[in-house]
């Protein structure tokens, strides 16, 4: 049941010409009509009937009252008539601070939210953006609340501005709590990403550690939303009932000192403890561990980012202030006559400090994708150094690039094969033809006098200017490797000599498989080239039927199998 406020601040009507007349600023009003419509005169120079309120001070005197209870040339009590006071001036300064923070938070969101690597299912891009989203939300709430705070001083009687200021102050407090949590959670995610980037299997995604990191944000937001539902969903009209001391004691104070606000502040304390739990978890899993609990305790101070050493104390001051205003009216932001220094130092300054620290960190640090690319480049350089690989500088491709030579794809492939020592040896006849042609041109009297044609399109000049080495043997047969090496050496010592082996033998040496029979190779080497050719012909000649074996048997170490005996017609 609503409490009826006694009219303790009412005063008698000014005397007029008679008992039914009263005078305000030289204007006569019908006292009978005023009493009929239940109007009462108060000490603050207002007349009200609990539904309408009119001002009766210079120069806002009403001229007349009509039979329907309305006034001529009247001014409502809920208008911004006063000059701005200390609270409005301080609030204007905080409007500028919140606007500056919003101006820098948006570039930080663009900088750290941009993707430079493909999206991973384990790390969503929105995870790194949430702290900047919440920062923008806090700035928006602060700007709206501080703009309304200007009219708290200017309104003749408390009205909607104090309601808006109080409402958005609590919303900004919740947004700041979420901002701090997202900053800590993102540091946890970033530490995990750096840890598993060299080895994706270092930490499974759904192990005990991963499930703890999955449930911890849900628990945090559970208590934060409990704080929201304990404070926000209620009637805030009682905050403006500060038009007299009696209203303050019976309406405004009981509202802001209710149990709901105290329980909501307790939920913020739980959220603050969860912040430290997340920090300890991150340092334990993603940072070097100490030898014992003492060194692990020191690791907490060593590996905690510097910005959190400034953010967490500011957050503690903010929570402590919200706890304090649940018991003290003189420093409560709802109080229109409260201590301005305490209200802005404990209620608004910590939020601004947290956002400024976040902005400094965001402007100083690079995008995490770019940092991850740099770390991968460093690890690649370390691996190359351990393997003895020296990478060419960045300008090497621009200076030695072959795009300006207009080479075809086949010519580029031949050029690259020749650069690594590949390609097949030139035929002896072609080599002799090139050498004879070169000698003939050098000795002839009418040789061309112009400069040599060094264009890459000229096949003859390319063939004369570059020596194509034979392809080295890369198989596992030592005998074939020895024969191939001797063949390459003989071709280099005697380039004009005919090839020592036939194309069939060369093709056999290039194949990968078991070596040829030792007896055949020995007899071939003893009898010279003729014996070698006879051995090749003997190997290429088909065997008798009694010695015929399967392909798999021919590829084994059984070089001289026993003759097979035919037992039935199925064996033929």
TrEMBL record:
Protein's UniProt keywords contain Iron: no
Domain of life of the organism encoding this protein: Eukaryota
Segments for region (Disordered): 429-481, 507-572
InterPro entries membership: DUF2434
Keywords from the UniProt entry: Membrane, Transmembrane, Transmembrane helix
Compositionally biased spans, kind Polar residues: 434-446
One Pfam family from the record: DUF2434
Segments crossing the lipid bilayer: 91-109, 130-150, 162-184, 214-232, 263-286, 306-325, 345-366
UniProt keyword annotation of Membrane present: yes
Protein name: Uncharacterized protein C56F8.12
Species in which this protein is naturally found: Ceratocystis fimbriata CBS 114723
């Amino acid at each position: 049941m609503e409490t009826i406020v006694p009219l303790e601040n009412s005063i008698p009507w000014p005397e007029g010409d008679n008992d039914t007349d009263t005078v305000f600023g030289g204007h006569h009003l019908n006292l009978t009509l005023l009493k009929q419509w239940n109007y009462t005169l108060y000490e603050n120079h207002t007349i009200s009937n609990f539904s309408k309120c009119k001002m009766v001070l210079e120069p806002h005197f009403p001229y007349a009252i009509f039979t329907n209870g309305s006034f001529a040339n009247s001014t409502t009590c809920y208008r911004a008539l006063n000059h701005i006071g200390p609270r409005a001036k301080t609030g204007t300064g905080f409007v500028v601070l919140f606007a500056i923070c919003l101006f820098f938070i948006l570039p930080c969101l663009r900088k750290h939210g941009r993707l430079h690597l493909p999206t991973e299912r384990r790390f969503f891009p929105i995870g790194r953006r949430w702290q900047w989203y919440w920062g923008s939300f806090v700035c928006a709430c602060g700007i709206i609340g501080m703009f309304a705070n200007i009219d708290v001083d200017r309104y003749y009687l408390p009205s909607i501005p104090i309601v808006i200021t109080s409402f958005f102050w609590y919303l900004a407090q919740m947004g700041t709590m979420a901002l701090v949590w997202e900053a800590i959670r993102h540091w946890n995610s970033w530490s995990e990403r750096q840890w598993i980037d060299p080895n994706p299997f270092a930490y499974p995604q759904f192990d005990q550690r991963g499930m703890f990191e999955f449930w911890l944000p849900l628990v945090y937001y559970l208590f934060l939303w409990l704080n929201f539902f304990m404070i926000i969903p209620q009637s805030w009209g009682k905050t403006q009932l500060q038009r007299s001391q009696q209203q303050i004691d019976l309406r405004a104070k009981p509202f802001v000192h209710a149990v709901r606000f105290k329980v909501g502040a307790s939920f913020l304390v739980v959220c603050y403890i969860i912040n430290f739990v997340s920090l300890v978890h991150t340092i334990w899993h993603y940072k070097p561990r100490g030898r014992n609990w003492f060194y692990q305790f020191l690791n907490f101070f060593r590996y905690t980012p510097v910005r959190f050493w400034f953010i967490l104390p500011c957050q503690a001051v903010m929570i402590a202030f919200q706890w304090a205003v649940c018991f003290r009216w003189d420093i409560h932001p709802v109080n229109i006559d409260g201590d301005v220094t305490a209200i802005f130092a404990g209620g608004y300054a910590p939020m601004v400090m947290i956002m400024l620290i976040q902005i400094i960190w965001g402007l100083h640090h690079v995008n995490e994708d770019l940092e991850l690319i740099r770390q991968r480049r460093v690890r690649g350089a370390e691996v190359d150094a351990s393997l003895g690989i020296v990478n060419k500088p960045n300008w090497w491709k621009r200076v030695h690039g072959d795009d300006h030579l207009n080479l075809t794809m086949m010519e580029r492939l031949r050029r690259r094969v020749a650069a690594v020592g590949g390609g097949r040896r030139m035929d002896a006849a072609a080599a002799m033809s090139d050498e004879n042609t070169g000698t003939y041109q050098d000795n002839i009297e009418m040789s061309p006098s112009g400069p040599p044609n060094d264009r890459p399109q000229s096949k003859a000049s390319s063939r004369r200017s570059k020596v194509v080495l034979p392809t080295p043997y890369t198989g596992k047969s030592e005998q074939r490797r020895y024969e191939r090496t001797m063949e390459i050496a003989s071709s280099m010592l005697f380039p004009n000599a005919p090839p020592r082996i036939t194309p069939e033998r060369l093709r056999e040496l290039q194949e990968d498989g078991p070596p040829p029979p030792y007896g055949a190779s020995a007899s071939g080497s003893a009898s010279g080239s003729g014996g070698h050719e006879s051995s090749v012909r003997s190997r290429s000649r088909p065997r008798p039927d009694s010695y015929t074996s399967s392909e798999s048997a021919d590829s084994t170490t059984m070089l001289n199998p026993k003759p097979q005996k035919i037992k039935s017609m199925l064996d033929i």
